[in-house]
Amino acid sequence: MKLILTEEEQFLKDTAKNFAEERCPISHFRSLRDNNDPILWDKEIWKEMTTLGWPGILIPEEYGGSNFGITGISVILGECAKTLTPSPLFATGVLGAFSITNFGSSEQKQNYLPKIVSGELTTALAIDESSHHNPANTEMTAKKDGKNFILNGKKTFVVDGASADLLIVLARTSGNKGEMSGLTLFLIDSNDPGIEKIKLDMADSRNYANINFNNIKVDAKSILGDEETGGETAENILDIGRIAIASEMLGNAEAAFETTLDYLKQRKQFGVLIGSFQALQHRAAEMFCELELTKSSVLAAMKAADEGSNELQRLSSLSKTIAGETLHLVSNEAVQMHGGIGVTDEYDIGFFLKRARVAEQIFGSSKFHTERYANISGF
After folding, report:
1. What DSSP assignment string belongs to 81-121?
2. Rounded to the nearest 5 degrees, what angle is found at the Cα of 353, between the Cα atoms of 347 and 358?
3. Nearest to 234 by CA among 134, 378, 359
4. Are residue 321 and residue 197 in the same domain, yes or no?
5. What is the pLDDT of residues 27-65, one digit of tens each?
6. 256 and 362 housed in the same domain
7. What pLDDT is recorded for position 1?
8. Is the pTM of this model over 0.85?
9. Does 2 map to a domain?
């Protein structure tokens, strides 16, 4: 496994970098937050991302996509993260596109994939039911009613759940809470009258929702993958999502680090630049080393996903763990090195701390993935 980007992947990374800096700098994110935008992402920016082909990167060419792989979409997310660009790209271009491409029926692919490519359809993955990530604890029910299923229950902390058109929902068709068996994934129109979306106000000012499902009736054509095997399918989807969000977290950490370095080179105290203080140099050096380790971990996970490696699960958890720990460290240090102004809204650095605290919890915290890594490794 070569831990380097191909020429095409580097091109995508450079394109994303230029796009994020020119079209959606941090001031763009700030304006969405300050204007209380209902969906907290810009539809015009999303159209431009669609024109660039980003939602279709994981989708086969026959459905209008480019099939550029996990590394391709992940490096884009990493660059957009450096300017805190909010968009449905993660929930739709990664989770939705990968789910339907790899587990959807022929009819589902024909119906949904071209709409994802065109930007007409956005998706959200509804997995968790409490404040702690654990798909096995699913209690939402999907009971058979003739040829149909009746879904009842709730989902919490659904990324882009407040605006998604299509929901990918994990429900229990048999078994008990705590079991990965007996779970099934369903594709559900979010406009169903039995669905109640409760928009969440999170520290990072992104689009999240708690969703209640009240007697939602769907037929077998709405099942994603096979009945009763949704737990395994969901884990496959989640592993890809964890790699993509780890790449985004790496981008957040890199931007916070660079911003802090610039500040150390400009801020004077006692008549000298604070970057000349050895204690701060040591702390900056530690951040640099952790960032380099994180880059290797995240890139290894990306490549494992694209190569279909047997190490995918372990590397996915490893990348999410290390990215979470590094972003936690760097965001803390960035605010502390900025001093009192670091916690004021006037400075952008505080946004990275807020984003870090939320992103760390998406699809499992570092603690969750440390335990998962150990279990997969046989410890």
Report:
1. HTTT---SIIIIIIIIHHHHHHH--HHHHHHHHHHHHHTS-
2. 135
3. 134
4. no
5. 999 999 999 899 999 999 999 999 999 999 999 999 999
6. yes
7. 67
8. yes
9. no
